[in-house]
Write a structure and sequence with these properties.
The chain has 260 residues and is an alpha/beta fold. The protein has eleven helices and eight strands. The protein has an eight-stranded mixed β-sheet, sandwiched between helices. The mean pLDDT is 92.
């Protein structure tokens, strides 16, 4: 286990591979652990990091740091302490919101971003996601599939106050309108069968540097539901030249065949 002290607080992270940096940010259910396979895939070309946010996994519980802004500060301080410059971000629900919060004030530090099953507005969240314990949510969102439950074994470590506070700050200030015009390439990925949130329509007026893909036969955890499909998409997205819109993925007949 690797850890770093940021502003007096212990933050747990794991790292794998060599190359350009990529940061994986987990969601409201679980911890860094469900990114293991994705880190292994990315590590062939990237130095892959996965961080436990405050109140999750093996990072300290710190109620004063549970807002999206404070979790974003964790990411900022981590990059600074580790000497990481421009970075690719991959965030899942809460992790994507934290990445967007970071983008809001540090857009020049982000090369590209993948946002997975991220709510655009607070009302998109299913009430059960807002109120149920993380262990119950893990069972609900994975249909108790053994491999997925193992990947989400840290759900029991989630501090409910961290979930409540982050959702509260999201409800108070929707982030997306602030970041859509920075020009950072962003790919939105949704599991078509996700019961946890309302999926936005694909023709929702995204700017040219942003694109949305819905993955059939996956739910809230596409990286666990269909890892082969998800990791092909991740690899193709990361392979784009810096600054290229993810809409270019649509032009690749090879990719279009593979996701049918």
């Amino acid at each position: 286990m690797s850890a770093i002290i940021l502003d007096g607080s212990m933050v747990h992270y794991e790292a794998l591979g060599r190359g350009r940096p990529i940061i994986f940010l987990h969601g409201w259910v679980g911890s860094w652990r469900y990114w293991i396979n994705s880190m292994q895939v990315a590590s062939t070309s990237f130095r892959a990091y996965a961080i436990d946010l405050f109140g999750f996994g093996d990072t300290v519980r710190s109620p004063s740091n549970y807002s999206l802004e404070k979790q974003s500060d964790l990411l900022s301080h981590f990059l600074e302490e580790m000497g990481i410059g421009k970075v690719a971000l991959v965030g899942h629900d809460l992790g994507a919101l934290v990445a967007f919060q970071f983008l809001k004030s540090h857009y020049e530090s982000v090369d590209r971003m993948m946002a997975i099953n991220v709510p655009m507005v607070y009302s998109d969240l299913n009430a059960r996601l807002r109120t149920a314990p993380a262990t119950e949510l893990a069972e609900w969102l994975t249909n108790r599939q053994p491999d997925a439950m193992t990947a989400l074994s840290d759900a029991s470590k989630v501090d409910p106050a961290a979930v409540t506070a982050s959702m509260g700050s999201f409800q108070a200030d929707s982030i997306f309108p602030h970041v859509r015009n920075f020009g950072v390439p962003c790919l939105f990925v949704y599991g078509a069968n996700d019961p946890a949130l309302t999926i936005p329509p694909q023709d929702n007026g995204l700017p040219m540097h942003m694109h949305q893909i819905n993955l059939d036969a996956t739910g809230h955890f596409p990286m666990l539901d269909n890892p082969a499909q998800f990791h092909r998409l991740l690899t193709d997205f990361l392979a784009l030249e810096s600054g290229v819109t993810p809409r270019e993925l649509q032009l690749k007949e090879e990719w279009k065949r593979r996701v049918r």
